Amino acid sequence: MIELKSVSKSFGNTQAVDQISFKVNEKENLVLLGTSGCGKTTTLKMINRLIEPDAGEIIINGKDITNQNPEILRRGIGYVMQNIGLFPHYNIAENIAVVPKLLKWDKEKTHQRIAELIEKLHLPNNCLKMFPHELSGGQQQRVGLARALVTDPAVLLMDEPFGALDNVTRSSIQAEFKALEELKRKTIVMVTHDVQEAFELADRICLMDKGEIIQIGTPKDLLYNPTNDFARKFLDGQRLALEFKVITLQDLWGFLPADQISNGEKPLDASSNIWNAMENIRSTSNGRIRVSNTNKEQKSVDFQQLTQAFNQYKYNHHHE
Ligand SMILES: Nc1ncnc2c1ncn2[C@@H]1O[C@H](COP(=O)(O)OP(=O)(O)OP(=O)(O)O)[C@@H](O)[C@H]1O
User: Fold this and answer.
1) Which ligand 1 atom is the nearest neighbour of the CA of 51?
2) What ipTM score was computed for the predicted complex, to two decimals?
3) Which positions fall inside the ABC transporter domain (predicted)?
4) What is the pLDDT of residue 319?
5) Which residue has a Cα nearest atom 26 of ligand 1?
6) Phi, psi of 311, deg, nearest 5
7) I want to staple 31 with a disulfide (CB 3.0 to 4.6 A). Which of 114, 124, 202, 209 is the partner?
């Protein structure tokens, strides 16, 4: 769907991006992860030609983008900017309607689509006539997302989409983001410097340093098969929290005891990660959850059983 082949870009003496190549599959969420200045934003902006590469090819849906009109290219690619980037003197409806206006959509169609997005993104109904400064940071972020989604583009580029938010708002928006059907249908390239965020949202992570790709792989690959010391050290200090995000109850299934199921236990899908399971156990009165997997098997699990299964899983993983 999106392919970069040996793409490079320098600014003066700074080699911002140095011969990078990767493919993003259809409906995949690839997260570009790395410390400040490693070339993530430059990479992202080359995909919609806000920055032109010095060398290499970028292909979207089989077509080299350098042969396309940049304006038309950008209309097919949603873009969520760093620091939200709403127009301060446009109200919320006008901010969301920028591209529909360029495309000369009729008023009714624009109106309906905006109403739909307002609902899906849990924005208050009365916000359409307000200006960006009258909304909270989290709400502004949702408006930025609505603007990027309004024409339902197949590709979405997101630059630190949750960067401007406090931790609590960020994790609730991340959870909503993951659950949004409209986003599941999109091919997404997202930039972040936040390891937890990358692990929470990515199908695959592209770890970058000094304009180069260090490793591309699933969160599990990065955690358990780092390619070098840089990749290993990048996750140091956060390993346990990342394992809680990456390992699912299904992974632990064989280590969970087959207890009697009783009534009143909170149900949870085995696709949930350990983090989520712990949160759920914590919020139940009897300290147990009832986990169901795709084979329609069920197990009742408490905190101790969960941690035991997790330790056994890790022990096996290290001794494979
Ligand atoms: N327009 C520009 N002019 C000069 N140098 C630039 C320009 N844009 C980026 N750079 C430099 O290129 C390098 C990569 O920048 P880039 O913004 O892609 O990094 P990043 O990983 O996205 O960092 P951040 O998370 O801080 O945005 C940096 O050294 C930066 O200073």
Assistant:
1) 1
2) 0.94
3) 2-235
4) 61
5) 36
6) -65, -40
7) 202
Q: Ligand 1 mean position to 124 CA, how many Å?
A: 36
Block residue for tokens 């970069």: 4
Is 234 in contact with 207 (CB distance < 8 Å)? yes
Contact (CB, 8 A) for 58 and 64: yes
Q: Does residue 193 line the site of ligand 1, with CB under 6 A?
A: yes
Q: Tell me, what's the pLDDT at 318?
A: 67
Distance, CA 305 to ligand 1 centroid (Å)?
47
Q: Kindly report the length of the chain.
A: 320
What is the Å distance from ligand 1's center to 45 Cα? 11
As a whole number, mean pLDDT of residues 87-105 equals 93
The residue nearest atom 7 of ligand 1, judged by CA position, is 11
Give me the percent of the chain exceeding a pLDDT of 90: 72
Alpha helices for the chain (secondary structure H): 40-47, 70-75, 92-96, 98-102, 107-120, 137-149, 167-179, 181-184, 195-201, 219-224, 229-235, 239-246, 249-252, 274-282, 303-318
- Using CA positions, which residue lies closest to atom 3 of ligand 1? 11
Domains in the chain: ranges and CATH: 2-241 (3.40.50.300), 247-318 (3.10.580.10)
pTM of the shown model: 0.89
Determine if ligand 1 sits within 6 Å of the CB of residue 17.
no
Which amino acid is residue 112, in one-letter code?
Q
Q: Which residue has the tokens 């290993």?
A: 232
- pLDDT, tens digit, 9 for 90 and up, residues 295-314: 989 999 999 999 999 999 98
The answer to whether 263 touches 257, Cβ cutoff 8 Å, is no
Mean pLDDT of 15-25: 96
- Is the pLDDT at 320 greater than 60? The verdict is no
